[in-house]
Amino acid sequence: MQGQRIYDFLRQGILTCDLPPGRELREQELAQQFDVSKSPVREALQHLVSEGLVIVIPRQGYRVSPVSLRDANEIFAFRQALELACIAESVKNASDEELKALDRFREFHGDCENEFITYNRDFHCALARCSNNGRMSRTACDLIEETERLVRMSVAAVRGPKAHKFVEEHNAIISALQDRDSRRAVSLLKSHVSAAVKRFSTALEWTAMQA
Q1: Do 85 and 50 share a structural domain?
Q2: Looking at the structure, do residues 181 and 148 belong to the same domain, yes or no?
Q3: Of 101, 125, 160, 173, which has the fewest CB atoms closer than 10 Å, so is most exposed?
Q4: Do 49 and 7 meet the contact criterion of CB atoms below 8 Å apart?
């Protein structure tokens, strides 16, 4: 139970970039922070290692995994494949009521980066759940959460499209789904996610220039 609590805290910190790539994670410091022995800390860290969010540095300890363009491409490619499969299933399996409920994402009224990232994550997870394929949608949502820190890095480093541009793209996807136009919905979502990969690539280049 203690290990799960520590895991949840660290995973959230990594995904929100509160614990940025390269941050050192010391067992002793974490044990003191959570007032536990090293055992549940080690359990949490090993869980994060298995997910690729933390790496082991021999004779040094643990660090938050750095993010390379190759890593990002692999994650986004897997996410895109699953999201496209989910949206194709949504056209066939979602009820009219489920598709109508997506209208809540047609507008974004927040005024800060965190609110937009939450809105964006919730939108993509809602699309996946409309597939009514529990296993596929859960895996897709896990990947969507994993790419959240890539999204944060992109938003923070690049003056890309404003929120209204993303909302316009979301609207087009929602409309295609509600029309049950599988080809259009898949094409729009594919372009939408592909653009996210390009933004991250630009953000990574920008970050390297600042180093």
Answers
A1: no
A2: yes
A3: 101
A4: no
- Judge if 132 and 37 occupy the same domain: no
Is-contact 139 85, C-beta < 8 A? no
What tens-digit pLDDT sequence spans the chain (211 residues)?
788 999 999 998 888 888 988 899 999 999 999 999 999 999 999 999 998 889 998 888 899 988 777 877 888 889 999 999 999 999 999 999 999 999 999 999 887 777 888 899 999 999 999 999 999 999 999 889 888 777 776 665 444 456 788 899 999 999 999 999 999 999 999 999 888 777 777 766 655 444 4
Residue 22 falls in which region: left (phi positive, over 0), alpha (psi -120 to 50) or beta? left
CA–CA distance, 44 with 72 (Å, rounded to integer): 23
Amino acid 155 reads: V
**Same domain, yes or no: 82 and 183:** yes
**148: alpha, beta or left, given left = phi > 0 and alpha = psi -120 to 50?**
alpha
Nearest to 210 by CA among 172, 170, 168, 158: 158
Same domain, 141 and 184: yes
Nearest residue to 125 (alpha-carbon basis) of 181, 83, 73: 83
Which pLDDT score is estimated for 139?
A: 94
**What are the DSSP calls for 120-165, one per residue?**
HHHHHHHHHHTT--HHHHHHHHHHHHHTHHHHHHHHHH-----HHH
